[in-house]
UniProtKB/TrEMBL annotation:
Molecular function as annotated in GO: calcium ion binding; superoxide-generating NAD(P)H oxidase activity
One GO term of the biological process aspect: superoxide anion generation
Organism field: Pygocentrus nattereri
UniProt main location, coarse: membrane
Protein name stated in the entry: NADPH oxidase, EF-hand calcium binding domain 5
Keywords annotated in UniProt: Calcium, FAD, Flavoprotein, Membrane, Metal-binding, NADP, Oxidoreductase, Transmembrane, Transmembrane helix
Amino acid sequence: MSLDEDTRWLEWVTKQFESIAGEDKEIDLDEFKTALKVKESFFAERFFALFDSDGSNSISLDELLKALNLLIHGSESDKLHFLFQVYDVDGHMFCKPDATGSGSIDPDELRTVLKSCLRESAISLPEEKLDDLTLALFESADKDNSGSITFEELKAELETFPEVMENLTIRIKTLRQTPRYLTRAYWHNNSRKLLFLCLYSFLNVLLFIVYMLQHAAGGLWLMLAKGCGICLDLNCTFIVVLMLRRCLTWLRATWVVRVLPLDQNILLHQIVGYAILVFSVAHTMAHIMNFIHLTQVHESYQLWEYVFTTRPGIGWVKGTASITGVVLQVLICLMVVCSSTFVRRSGHFEVFYWSHLSYIWVWALLIIHCTNFWKWFVAPGIIFLVEKLVGIAVSRMGGLYIVEVNLLPSKVTHLVIKRPPFFQFKPGDYVYINIPVIAKYEWHPFTISSAPEQQDTIWLHVRSMGQWTNRLFEYFRQSDSQAISNKRLTASLRNHRNQTKTQISTKLSENHRYCDIKCYVDGPYGTPTRQIFASEHAVLIGAGIGITPFASILQSIIYRMRKQNCPNCNYSWCETIKDNEMMLRKVDFIWINRDQKSFEWFVSLLTKLEMDQADEEPEGRFLEMHMYMTSALSKNDMKAIGLQMALDLLAKKEKRDSITGLRTRTQPGRPDWGKVFQKVSEEKKGKVHVFYCGSPALAKVIKAQCEHFGFNFYKENF
């Protein structure tokens, strides 16, 4: 830490201390707990006892700064002594200031510390597993088998974990000076999008200038209104093109995807939407100013007559241009406001959904309002209508039923839908689903989480985040509902008559049941992940329920990898089936979850992936999995060092992770993306393509790192 950083940090600590401390200028235990924001009081009490050097049951600013200075600037030995005192429970907390406990750590003390570590990291493990963790760490550290761990033994054990030793300090992040938008890597990796936006902007400016000059005789305000009007014709037509999901899905399979930014259609849709708002407001205000000018020159009509009546005869359909313009302005503003992030992400998706359906009225009013709009709109409008009719026909074709439901942790609903024979899709595709018993007219998009090779059923995993998704979860959670029970009996009767191999029961478990509920599916529609099998080195990053497109991809990989067994010995290996699409040489799968229970969503799939893949392959592992749990304290947190060491030791001993049961060790905290991508870059398995599905905030962080390393970045948007 530099001198300037040190000074700023001391000023910040002093300011924070003064805001917490009372008139006595000291902090008591309760205030200390509040300031630390810890889940488990054990560590707050241990740190407080160690910081309180004079044994006064309160901490002064000098005592706090002295302790923090040791943790930041102290030697490695000083920091290890502090850690040892935290773990040496029996004595220091209630001893005199110079006491340091018994001088050794016994198994019971270690168990107490690890139990508190588990609570602090929001990890739930059985008591037996806690005993196993304690013994694993204790047996490894107690080198002389004396029945206790001394300071020297703890130090020796810590030295076998270099990543822990490196992090026994506090580091301050430095801000990058150069904005990423000005870097060469950003322009290289976003060349298609930036070029397209330049052409789009140039076309708008060109049309604006040409139409302004054509109406120069009408005055400045009329020139501005006409210039904005022609730009509205362009943008209100282009936004239709960006809504042609079937056409865009088809184009993704052609060479066009290498020229046009088809994977950015949602971003472009948003940009064009905001452009329409700006042009429409400018167009409306310019006309109003022109009407004010006309009332002053001719005095034939009042301003309100120009704006709200048909008397002036403005417009090609019975003088309705002004009235339709006012209605259009209101509808456009309503659509933009209701499509804002705070509306869509705050559990009010239905507000966005229903307000966006007013696009039908917008197009109808535009045809009436503007003389030439129909000429712009006719071609894409017909294609859009055909797409809609095809979608309706496909969704109503054949009887689709939800045949199985599994309610998973964190309010995730796993739907199993009977797959129609004509339904073909690619890994990572999504569909719109309508379930009449939940909402008769609402359609919602969800990624298909099953593999295309799975012929009988389609899987959807739905996270409860809004009104519709919550109603869906609650509908299936209410197991005593008579309506559901009747449908299950109908399903059982139908399947019995069809003599299916599997007998359908009304209830498999508390959260798992068979059913027979009518639904409609529109799709599938393509996403950027369609390009994964054309990549050489793919990095799949799912945050929370963002794993769903990658669940489909990973299952497809299982089907494409043949397991071979040697007839003369027990050796087995996986042989990847090569085809025209399969160019993959390496896949890194990264799954980030907030809590432990979320890993249960796809743990069976991940277990199968680990079992099917050989331990050793000539070119290294084809698939590597990396699990991160953000609620768990990372290894640079002193409250988690012992726990993470114990988890590492037990994982090596049992050949599986204690949190998920997988062979892959679950890492605590958030990934260090710089280190993750540096490792990927050093593997040199070919051009790296990073596919991400999750929160927009994390997407920005990952995208910035991809630009730094020169990786291609794709984000799921629908």
